User: Fold these one by one.
Assistant:
Number 1:
Amino acid sequence: MRVSVLEISAQLENVTNLTISSQYEYHIKFKCNNCDTETENFMTFSDDSKVPLMGGKSFVNLIFKCKVCSRPSNVSIIDGSLRSYLAEDSTNFKPLIEFDCRGCDPILFQPINRFQCTNMDNTTEFNDVDLSELNWADYDERTNESVGIYDFKYRFTTIKKSTK
Ligand SMILES: [Zn+2]
């Protein structure tokens, strides 16, 4: 099975465990594998929204049809693939989440929904990390340190996984 991986990179200042919640709402643009047309808008979906596939026996997180060739695509968030970006990962690309994309490929990601992270010794949680401008700065009152995430980047890669 071919899996699409959303990888992120950022420079972390006095924080670690950068990740998203299981209710995160993704904003992603896809490209149709049949005719290369990009979706007009960012598609939104989350692990909370389950859509039955035709026949209703299995569920995915997003179904859409290509506006040009009408071919249907579907996307599933892969269970257990969510990871955290750590302080030692700083400025290297690391996988955040994996998607099973059928009929399409993800091409653009907008970090509109909030991320979360913790300070280095896990005593302060930051749950409202706004990376929509690709930088975030705050102050940790417990440790009296400035904290921040800078130069947020993402990319999509694909990996091959053996089917279960
Ligand atoms: Zn198409």
Number 2:
Amino acid sequence: MTWSSRHATWVPSINMGRCRSCGLCYFTCPTISRENEDVSWLRFLGPVNGSWLGYSTNKLIRWKAASGGVITSLLIMALKEKVIDGAVVVKMKTGVNPVPKAVIATTPSEIIEASTSKYCIVLLSANVQRSICLHLGLFCGGLPTYNGTLYLLTRLGVYGKAITDLTYRGGGWPGRLLIKTSDGVVIKSRYPQYWDNSFLYFVPKCCLTCMDVFNRDADVAVGDAWLPRIIETDSLGTSLIIARTERGKELVELARDKGYIHVEPISISEVMLSQLHKVLIAKEFRGEHHTAYTAVEVARIRVGRAIARMRVWPLLNIYNQFTTQLLKLARYMRKLIS
Ligand code: SF4
Ligand code: SF4
């Protein structure tokens, strides 16, 4: 992997001298559109060995997390039960231009410290990758390049300042962005607001066609429960949990039995419903047209990405304001129609 300052992210590079042209990378990549590829709902969902709605029974963990704090609690239990010796987690490195960094946590407090979302690719050495025995993965709606964070800092007037805390999500659900600077400035912004109107435009093209929304290769995949009944009632956070392997299922059930998490079964159709928007957008980017709403949304993202690529921040600000109003209107119309 090499850092591309043009794209503000890590990009893979192939050593052509060693490549055997086996095609494995091409055929396993979930972002490439291929002719006659199965893009059914079930292909998106991946294997399911159990699905639940749940949250950490520790209120502080739940409050600090991006959604229900389930991954944090599962990791703490796995550590205490000696299923793992340590967990690869991502922490924010503060300072001017704060960046996320992968670290190995060996205590519950280190795991808690690293909880909640980070929005940037981090690197892992091959040695660390080889020693991973359990994969707890997140649902993924796309990962913005680091330019997304830089744009956000600029828009909020703290670019170039020493940042002492940058928390992308947390503080209940769906959470908020929290930025603190060394000179005492504290900024808060609601999560859906800054994600939809900033980060989305910095998501690489490959993420927009990605079919790995539900993290198909994890032992346990976890994500936000974007379901009407949760959105209307929950301000603390609830996660959707999918166990894919037997090992993953045992871990969730052990955590439930030992009281680390509270879970209740949920149907596959509700799991799918929770990420319907992202799946529809990915299908639309793959050329499968669905509704007028998704077509407008895709057009909005395309134009926003073009402006973001030019780095004309004031124009992006104006575009943001305009599309925010447009989105509100579209949602209102959709509600009226349905
Ligand atoms: S997976 Fe196969 S095709 Fe891809 S880089 Fe490696 S050797 Fe080459
Ligand atoms: S959307 Fe897909 S390609 Fe993009 S970061 Fe997520 S899993 Fe990776």
